[in-house]
Amino acid sequence: MLESPTISTVCSRSPEALLSFTTSTATSVLPCTGKKDNTSKRKSMQRLSSMSTVHARPLPPLTTFIANLFQRSQLPPSVCLVSLIYLQRIKRALSPLARGDHDTPYRLFIAAIVAASKFMLEPRQALTSQDVAGMIDHVYTPKEINSMERSFLGLIKFDLFVDIHAIKDYLAMHGTLLEMDLVEQQVAAFDEQHQQQHAPLPVELL
Q: What Gene3D superfamilies would the database entry show (predicted)?
């Protein structure tokens, strides 16, 4: 007898908790300068030159920046969660000597959320560089956003796959602070074609 397929849904109980945790995660990936100060660079330290450039346009506080993108994009919680897993992966991939600039947390967040949307959503729903540029009031151009994403993917060696076990592991560690839950439900009815073929339906992460 076939087992009923399972549908897994990530639920956020507190947008404020998600915002706070995302901001903290983006700023904790690596040490960064607090302001634009090229004199503070040390040749002995590895810097994320491809992720950070001299930025002349004013940036809002990181919390405001992330909140605006969350509000304007209306991404499902699962995409936000996967972006946090990507930030965890890049933190592990970086050298202990890596240093960032004042806007590196902004760039890391953008790259992670764009990559997560492309992994989790249908192509027509995923964020594009043009979409993001508009949502962040064009403080970065689409060309810059594309460059951020390419650099980010290179640093994590295109390790984008996230399965249900990775979701469960991350929530086991951080779910309380995030105020997120994974709700799993068995689907009672099978598609007739799958019943005839005796093939279980795939697990979906919504």
A: Cyclin-like (1.10.472.10)
